[in-house]
Amino acid sequence: MNTTRHPFRFGVLAGGAKDAATWREQARRTEELGYSALLVPDHMGQEWGPLVSLALAAEHTSRIALGTLMLAANLRQPAVLYKELATLELAAPGRLEIGLGAGWLATDATRAGLPFEPAGARIRRLDEAVSIIRRLWDEGTATHDGDYFSAAGAVGEPRPNPVRWAMGGGGPQMLRTAVRHADIVSLSARLSSGRKDNSFGASATAERFDERVRWVREAAGARIHDIELQTLLFAAAVVPDSARYADRVLSRMFGLPAEEALDSPLALVGNADEICERLHVRRERYGISYWVVPAAQLESFAPIVARMAGK
């Protein structure tokens, strides 16, 4: 049992909308429904640009946290990214959650004209990038000469307020890196194929999440009590018959037997009472309190948010 217990909170992951007016309304609606955060992905497909999206949302909301899940460090120079993030923080003071990742999707790199490096190299690249960005944020200057990035007297201007940092993944190297830098550690499956397929399923089981929590706790030591554990749901559905949904949808999606897929922390399926019970059980087992649902479930999960947020 995990003894660290943070209050439940919920975010929405949204990659854009059909037009700017719809995006603004979605941001307002996410806030109205009591979600804690509006988060955006960072991919080179049809998704909107993450930082411009959040700047638009900042102008039409007042309380909700705005964040990235996750910005791919391999696509940007860290000192340049710092300036964009710092400017965004000034547009939404006190509300920014900066999620930084190693870039798991191979097509993002190739579409950007970059090599898709092995996972270990991408994680080391991320480690360097975060070190530079956080030094600029916290100290106002950075000089760095590393294996992947260099910065000669980079200046941390404009000066932003403190923010919350998020990182995560499914393997030990990534999770240990996250613990070194982040306030929010996001637990996921291993996405080692570099593609959107169901090969993640074998690493999505409840037992594999037990292992990830152990890695995080060992790396964090006493700081585990200050770390908020997050999970992005790959499947979320309020339905009357969870077993039937697992058999028809989850099993194929996860490449697992239906019962194992339903028990995965990456799936949250059932009627409202079942889902609320699953949330309590999973917080006790894993310590996960921050749950992110896909934008398509914004409205259907609102009653769950109303019942569980802050408890």
Automatic annotation (TrEMBL):
Gene3D superfamilies: Luciferase-like domain (3.20.20.30)
Entry-linked PANTHER family: ALKANESULFONATE MONOOXYGENASE, ALKANESULFONATE MONOOXYGENASE-RELATED
Top-level lineage group: Bacteria
Originating species: Streptomyces pathocidini
Protein name: TIGR03621 family F420-dependent LLM class oxidoreductase
InterPro entries in alphabetical order: Lucif-like_OxRdtase_MSMEG_2516 (IPR019923), Luciferase-like_dom (IPR011251), Luciferase-like_sf (IPR036661), SsuD_RutA_monooxygenase (IPR050172)
Keywords for the protein's UniProt record, in alphabetical order: Flavoprotein, FMN, Monooxygenase, Oxidoreductase
Pfam families, sorted: Bac_luciferase
Start and end residues of each Luciferase-like domain: 13-189
